Recover the amino acids of this structure.
């Protein structure tokens, strides 16, 4: 399918300015050019001219591949069930899906490259990203801590009923709050991760039923519209830190 018409109609971006690529510095201000990806591809056998720009978390971790013959790309997600081949011309972006159309990747075909063969790669969850944030140091484990991050939600086409929530299997609790950008498209900036942003209404959005709408009060956004979304992580005093806590950011919407 064409890019930005379905599963990828909403983009998530770091804050911290156009050149910020660090989740730790995503503390408000202007939108970054850095797209927050659902999963990260680690190539074992790349193909010239093929760039995997994003992958839906529904893929889950594991080995995947994209086979390219005569300009037609076919995606096989980690579940091993291939989808239908999609023709892609040089300079185009397309979304490829497996047999289950929630398991998808968005790819870009570079011009002037061979674009032929089979790319194999591992899909990996991000570690210490903008949602899970950094590890909890021992001093904060004892005393407890609250830290913040900010991202931008951008409509890549008209979308309705945008809803966001966070789930985790760890001891941390998460809350979300929205902030409407100013006339320059910016949101407030905090000086460090422990400073609470001002004037926000925090919601414990930990399930679809308690998810927070982004955009207008119905969660609707027009193409190219952006909105700020703040994340608050609270770790309890005298908590027990797990080696790895799973933190999942959920994004639901209706593509227009």
């Amino acid at each position: 399918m064409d890019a930005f018409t379905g599963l990828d109609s909403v983009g998530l971006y770091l804050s911290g300015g156009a050149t910020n690529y660090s989740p730790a510095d995503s503390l408000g201000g202007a939108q970054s050019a850095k797209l927050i990806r659902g999963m990260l591809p680690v190539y074992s056998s790349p193909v010239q001219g093929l760039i995997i720009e994003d992958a839906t978390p529904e893929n889950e971790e594991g080995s995947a591949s994209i086979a390219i013959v005569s300009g037609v790309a076919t995606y096989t997600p980690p579940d091993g069930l291939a989808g239908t081949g999609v023709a892609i011309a040089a300079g185009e972006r397309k979304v490829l899906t497996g047999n289950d159309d929630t398991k998808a990747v968005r790819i870009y075909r570079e011009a002037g490259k061979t674009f032929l063969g089979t790319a194999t790669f591992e899909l990996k969850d991000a570690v210490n990203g903008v949602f899970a944030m950094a590890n909890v140091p021992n001093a904060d484990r004892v005393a407890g801590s609250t830290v913040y991050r900010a991202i931008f939600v951008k409509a890549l086409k008209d979308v309705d009923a945008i809803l966001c929530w966070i789930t985790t299997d760890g001891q941390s609790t998460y809350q979300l709050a929205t902030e409407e950008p100013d006339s320059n498209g910016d949101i407030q900036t905090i000086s460090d991760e422990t400073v609470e942003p001002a004037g926000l209404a925090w919601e414990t959005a930990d399930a679809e039923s308690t998810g927070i709408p982004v955009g207008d009060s119905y969660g609707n956004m027009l193409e190219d519209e952006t909105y700020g979304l703040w994340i608050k992580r609270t770790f309890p005093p005298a908590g027990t830190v797990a080696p790895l806590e799973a933190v999942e950011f959920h994004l639901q919407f209706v593509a227009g």
Observations:
- The longest helix spans residues 138-143.
